[in-house]
Design a protein that fits this description.
Blueprint (H helix, E strand, L loop, with lengths): L4 E3 L8 H5 L10 H18 L6 E7 L2 H12 L7 E5 L2 H12 L4 E5 L8 H10 L5 E5 L1 E2 L4 E2 L2 H11 L2 E5 L11 H4 L3 E5 L10 E7 H6 L11 H11 L9 H17 L1 H22 L15 E5 L8 H11 L1 E3 L10 E5 L6 H18 L7
Parallel strand pairs: 1-12, 3-4, 3-5, 5-8, 8-9
Antiparallel strand pairs: 2-10, 6-7, 9-10, 11-13
Helix pairs in contact: 2-10, 3-4, 5-6, 10-11, 11-13, 12-13
Bound molecules: pyridoxal-5'-phosphate.
The site of pyridoxal-5'-phosphate (PLP) has 14 residues, from helix 3.
């Protein structure tokens, strides 16, 4: 039987050519591997809208959370700085936890999970707290799948003279990322989301000047981006410590496939078609999406769980699994029972239609005529 496809917002199902790139052992200090790593950085800069003269893509071992940790731990000064996190989901909250671990100064602007962050609310929060020096925003909150209006939020941050970081882990390659236009100091991303690589590699794209100014600031040697960036430049593309060589090679293949597919516009179109098929089919079964379609990124869809006593999430999960699809195993929203089905990675509209069919069969198995909440 074929391997199941992953309907999660990372890791995602990858292309055969990406997996095939993992069959070779690489010496990480040698020329070809360094060239591979440098090539990834160039393509990521292009995908993130950052000029190479101004920004550097710094590779890091680990998932997106490690990249976000490294961004904060390296770039937020230990004294005389305060980070404000625009928080409307789990990833904003995870960053808060991370910065508290480091013992740095952090505050949150807590907003509802089901609506895009309001730029006026951010402007008011910044006016009310002059001690804030940095602002962090999550582009696509994978908790629900909603996207935040980073263009507008970035305007507010720029007008207030603060520095901006954006978590683009779930948006890079899918939605437009414009770090120069946003005047962002840094963005964080990982290998296993919109670029469709395997998990294990993170990147922070940061202003060269900000990296240089952060020398000695990091709380952790392995997560010290400035140290890694300096070594990377001096060595012509090396990691400081052992990189996941097979993952780097596969990520290089994945980003080449991403560029060949037509980059972000093409990927957006493919995922958007997946999302439409999923939302249309699930809505027809009676399931109700948690967020409005206009603010839904084509990454993952979140639905209310039916309130009927016969509803059993496990029956849905198992039905999808029998059909060859693995969905996320539970709810992540804070205030209401929901479930999530991803629509990114190497899956297509036919897959989405089979998922809807399996969901319909699951409802019948539970004795329900509709998935209405
Ligand atoms: C996936 C994701 C991360 C990183 O999560 P990991 O579990 O470390 O992969 C960070 N931010 C967002 C918005 C994400 O979707």
């Amino acid at each position: 039987m074929a391997d199941p496809l992953l309907l999660t917002p990372g890791p995602v199902s990858t292309a055969p050519a990406t997996r095939a790139a993992m069959t070779r052992d690489w010496p990480p200090w040698d020329g070809p591997f360094k060239t591979l790593t440098l090539g990834i950085g160039e393509k990521l800069l292009a995908a993130a809208g950052g000029a190479a003269s101004e920004y550097l893509a710094v590779p890091l071992v680990g998932s997106g959370s490690y990249a976000v940790d490294a961004m904060a731990g390296t770039l937020l000064p230990r004294a005389g700085a305060r980070l404000l996190i625009v928080c409307n989901g789990n990833y904003g909250r995870r960053l808060e936890t991370s910065v508290r671990y480091m013992g740095r100064d952090v505050v949150t602007l807590d907003l509802p999970e089901t609506a895009p962050a309001d730029p006026a609310a951010l402007a008011a929060a910044l006016r009310a707290d002059p001690a804030v020096t940095h602002v962090a925003v999550v582009h696509v909150e994978t908790t629900t799948g909603l996207f935040n209006p980073v263009d507008e939020l970035a305007d507010v941050v720029r007008a207030s003279g603060r520095r901006l970081w954006v978590d683009v882990v779930a948006s890079l390659g899918i939605l437009p990322v414009r770090m120069s236009a946003w005047n962002a100091e840094a963005v964080a991303l990982s290998s296993n989301k919109g670029i469709e690589g395997p998990p294990g590699l993170g990147f922070v794209i940061a202003r060269r000047a900000a990296l240089a100014a952060a020398r000695g600031n990091a709380h952790s040697l392995s997560l010290d981006l400035e140290h890694q960036a300096r070594f990377f430049e001096e060595s012509g593309g090396r990691f400081r410590y052992t990189p996941p060589t097979h993952v780097v090679a596969a990520f290089a293949a994945a980003i080449d496939a991403f560029v060949a597919e037509g980059g972000q516009p093409a990927r957006f179109a493919r995922y958007a078609a997946n999302l439409s098929a999923l939302l249309d089919g699930m809505t027809e079964l009676g399931f109700q999406p948690v967020i409005a379609r206009a603010v839904q990124a084509p990454v993952i869809a979140t639905f209310h769980q039916p309130g009927d006593a016969r509803w059993n999430f496990q029956v849905l999960y198992d039905a999808l699994k029998r059909a060859g699809y693995l969905m996320f195993p539970g709810k992540v929203t804070q205030t209401m029972p929901t479930f999530r089905i991803g629509c990114m990675g190497q899956v297509d509209v036919a897959d989405m239609n089979r998922v809807v069919e399996a969901a319909g069969a699951a409802l019948r198995e539970m004795g329900l005529s509709s998935g209405a909440p």
